[in-house]
Amino acid sequence: MSSLQKPVGYLELIRSNANFRNLWLGQVVSLLGDWFNLIASATLIATLSKSGLAVSSLFVVRMLAPFLVSSFAGVAADRFNRKYILIITDIARAITLLGFLFVREASDLWLLYTLTAIQFSISGFFTPTRTAILPDLVADNEVGTANAISASTWSVMLSLGAAIGGIVSGTWGIYPAFMIDAVTFIVSAIFISRIRLNTVVQSEHSKRFAAFFRQYVEGLEFLRKNRNVLVTACHKAMVALLAGSTFEIVEVAISERVFTIGVGGGISLGLMFMMTGLGSGIGPIVARNITGDKSRALRIAIVVGYVMISLGYLMVTPLFNFGFTLFGILFRGLGGGIVWTFSTQLLLQQAPRQISGRIFASEFAFFTLTGAIGAVLVGRALDSYSISTILAGLATLILIPGALWLFWISRKSVMNSAKH
Questions:
Q1: Minimum mean pLDDT among 199-203, 245-249, 397-401: which range?
Q2: Domains: count for the chain
């Protein structure tokens, strides 16, 4: 189908495309449980350990585990049936979640970290495969709409899941959240099983490990030769380093030390995550009405997104009022959602379908590695510096990748003009 055709509407795509609808419904329920899990895990660790470094370790594990499997995950997404990968990983994560019920004392935290590592190693296969399968389920003129729906769903479910998870954890305790998360993965697997995949991406190469590794190297080689794709794939890494798990750890500290509502600050933490979700969901939908799916407009909007993240941080920094703090978090989410969603859309437009799994796995690897680094640095900083000092530093640092991206697209624009 021609890429010049008019993009379809959001509701139109959900109504008319049963395959995408089932993938989307699976995403809705599994993400709801994911945010239940994060709120419960962070609150449990903060309550049992009373340590910023201990909380940051949770985010390090959540980021580092999928990074370690990324080389296998990308090749698997390009070699095997992507639908089956999604189903198997959902079921495996559901089983893993049941183990969280046995974490009861500070001496059990090793088990929580271990189970989190297993869960997110499995997620390291699920996440890039889910992104790579989108073009297999929708037409060319539906890709932008499908990506926007997926990104906004992540944000909306962050809002609902974090808010409801915060209420559940802050009112009835932490363990029901783990049970709900396990059930949502099973429901997600049921929805995905209803997908009818016409094109099965499967390698014609040898099944030996050497061939498996060679295909991964081919993906890295593509990124090396296609610098524009490589630079675009680094946006999520920058968000993770300076505005992702980094800020989530700061939010845990705010709920524990400044605005403590509910058991262990579970309700206030849920509200802060909710505002992040609202912002990151609204931002790309509103911005896409202006940019459409035009590459140049998407690139410029990413610069604006970085600036909005910085301004949001500056609003949160004073911490003098919970309402204004929530508004600053909302504004930061608006910018983060734009950077996240539009960088994914650019990759979907640039990545050849036969190696898209490896490209998105590499992007996910960059994201998880920098997220782990950021989590360690912020966790240590919280044991030495004030929350406001850390927020002011993040507000400044997030402008650096924005400025570098502006330089990159300006340089590319000048080079293109010179060719003509």
A1: 199-203
A2: 1
Q: Does 202 fall in a domain?
A: no
Tell me if 110 is assigned to some domain: yes
Question: Cα(420)–Cα(403) distance, rounded to whole angstroms?
Answer: 26
pLDDT digits (tens, 9 = 90+) for 323-378: 999 999 999 999 999 999 999 999 988 878 777 778 887 888 888 889 888 888 88
Handedness of CA 376, 377, 379, 380 (dihedral sign): positive
Residues 379-397 have pLDDT tens digits of: 889 888 999 999 999 999 9
Q: Which residue has the tokens 């985010």?
A: 59
Neighbours of 351 (CB within 10 A): 25
Global model pTM greater than 0.70: yes
CA-wise closest residue to 331 among 300, 348, 362, 306: 306
Nearest-angstrom CA–CA distance, 343 and 345? 5
The answer as to whether 3 is a domain residue is: no
Answer whether 269's CB lies under 8 Å from 297's CB: no
User: Cα 138–142–147 angle (5° rounding)?
Assistant: 90
